[in-house]
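User: Round two. Same drill as before: sequence, then structure, for each protein.

Assistant: Same drill it is. First protein:
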Amino acid sequence: MPFTFESQRLTLLSRLAQTDYPTAVSTSDPTAFRGIPVTDKNFTKLAPKVSNNADDAQGNDFPTEEYLHEWDTERDMEIPVTSEEIGYSLLASFGSVATSQPASGTDPTVFQHIFTLQDGNVSRQLPARTLVEILGTAYNALFPSMVAQSLSMKGDGTARVTASLKLRGSGKKTVGSGISVSQALAQFPTGRHYFFNSQAGIVTTDNNAGTNSLDYGAGLLLNSWGWELDNDLIADDGFRPGSQLYQGNAQQVETITVVGTATGTGTLTMTVTAAGMSGSPKNVTVNITSGDTPTVIAGKIVTALNADSNVSSFFKASSSNANVSITAILAAANDATMNLALALGTATGVTPVSTSTHTTAGAFDPTSGQIRAECLFGRRKLTINEFSVRANDQTKELADLLSRRPIDWKLTLTGPTISHSFKHQLIVELPLVKYDVVEINAGGKIAALKITPKPLYDVVQNFAIKATLINTVTSYTT
């Protein structure tokens, strides 16, 4: 049997955010995940926090006991930037996106996504995603609740633009993700449109004035650039006393698959059974319409289950294509009687299901180490780094430094044409920066300026950073 080789490593992230911080995206439908073509060779670091009794008065120089407190998970990714995939990292890091079609009539395949920083006055919990890592037959694991600690991007020479995404999880690790190697490979996108630094341009203008414009790309002056958003996650505070979230816990999950398109309008009866649930077994009526597909019916079942007060106080229902799952809100010992059944009422065409699949067994173990209940962001930080240009004439840069002139710094990456005048494009704008350092570097054959701009918040435009992405992706949230 051949040994597993590093080229067999596979990394996947859920396409959409988790419904809440603790609850992982179900792997019952592998298409709910997307393959990430990472260039690094990292895997998620799982680390325990422990203490011992070395300081106890026990007549011994050495500890005799160790106490497990909590678990932490971290993953660093290096990702080549593509027009399609970078939107997922931008949303994870910025927290908010608005999508529109700039010319739906003439160019229906073109979509514009504007990413802005999530309003901390509304919520400091960034979207959490579920991570899956696979290495041939040697390793297969799932890590829920991965939140963006930081995102950086850089370009140099004519190489592909790269992004670094640092993720912080709840500390939970599940061995055996439920996704096989073949299923994982099928989730890697094709036809990507990579951004190269040869496609980059940086333009600086006077803040909110548009004057004194300098185009470093068109002027053949640009060497390299980089920027970073650090979300300053308040990681240690995420371990909340009383949350009862532990490494050994498991929320029980029951799943059914809807089979058959409705041939007659009417009702279905869902029966939910669980020890400890008020009203168990509880019947819930679902109205469906002739022609409803299994996926549509699954969505209607979820809506009905989540609207029932008895069921929703005990479970969270979700669907993925034709699969319907109910997940216990609280971790508890496995309940062998738990069940989700589907019976025909007055509707026709749908296949009844009497017994659900026990997708995940329930468990509760308070001795297994606590995991996070949340991971909030703190005081976010922006940095522009590695901004290097040819030192053809440093008059403007030095004048900007000396006068503390407020500047609008805008990076544009422009790829191939999508339709008519629309191209794959990423624009990152920091509307207010001031130069902290402008230094000459004669280390290369052509002298260069190394510029260090300090980003500030623009109270006129009401943002510190904004990213606009134009591509053919219809949505990053649905």
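Second protein:
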Amino acid sequence: MQAKVSGCRDAAAGNLVQWPGGTATIGAEYDVEGRMSRVRWDGNVVEQHLYDARNRRVRSGNKLQLYGLGGELLGEYLSAPAGLGRPRVVRERIYFAGLWVWTVEENGGVSLPNTDRLGSLKHGSRRYPFGDGNESYANDEYATYRKDHASAHYYAWHRWYSATWGRFSSPDPYVMSGGLTNPQGWNRYSYVANDPVNFHDPDGLWAQPPSAPGFCPPGYSYADCVRDGVFRPGGGLGGTWDWCRAAPDYFPILSMPDYCRPLIGLMLVEKGGGGSQDDKVNCTVELWYRPLDLPATAGLNHAFLRVSTTIAGVGTTWDQIEGGPQNDGDLVNPGNLIRRTDYYPKKSNPELKNNKRWATVTSHTDPELCDKLFHLYLGVVYVEDHPVKYNAIDGPNSNSYINFLLRYSKITTDRLFAPPGTWAWGVPLYP
């Protein structure tokens, strides 16, 4: 579904390629990954954008952008002509404990970031909820997005956003975003399901409530931090860290309780970045299956994932991810499809002889696996926030859940087909 705006034109892929810009008609070109690569005014190229492998914009015209391991913007610089010196600072940011605390301007002046709870800069009069109304070169950030004045759009990491129209310029890359339980998702261009007062979307991919600055990792909401024991309300700047964090580089120590394990991928990527980093960090995902334990299900299997992360000199920890009915054992009212944490160490124990490992992928075979592991856990959170009914026969069931997480995180194994007997593997969670 596309939200049409007068004077605009979309390409076949759904990307906005032409729109009115006041005194000029603005056009855009996109690269093969669907990222805005060129901006034109009345047909003339006025700006070009380049991106890294994580979709971070690293060059815009003659400006260079530099990011930290957690994806935070560290600085912006003007590139120098060849042979004429080094890039010149436009602005740099200083962080402490993950919190943006200072901005260093080109003239050497230092200022405190004046942002609201959504991440918008506050200069002069206030904005309208979707970001329009007070846009200038001094007030060029809205809900963590940076304004690009050539295109009149905001850079939103994986997409571009227009505050004028309150929508993205390209569709949600997740094609199954809509569903009966989430009718707003049918509009793949909408911003935060049209609720910009209570939500923002730092990734350009999904709505999330604003997190407590400096405490919750990016992409992890305040509610999730409280739920999983990472953040305790009260004290300090609104809260204090729980002991899940008490380990080198956010890496969970082996003696931590099970509720810390869902954060392994998130914490690792925030400090370790993607790839193996010369074998200092190694991620592994294993796809397993086991027989179902009911007499009427002979020949049918249940799929699950085992995830491990290793940091050289620190150690290895692991997690097991599998789905199941909310009301396990209730065939009449099974409830929603949820992540089950009680199948191990009993039924889903890899040491049982009938449980088989089907496929394996590591950082050595996929250098981006640690980054993908981060998105795998975001997929787990997505299903929690967008519940679907469990259906053992027609799906979606536990096998559909594992297939969804692999596809959501773009993790591909050395097997091109599903484990044997995994009924309803291909049934989508959000048709």
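The first helix runs from residue 222 to 227.

User: Perfect.
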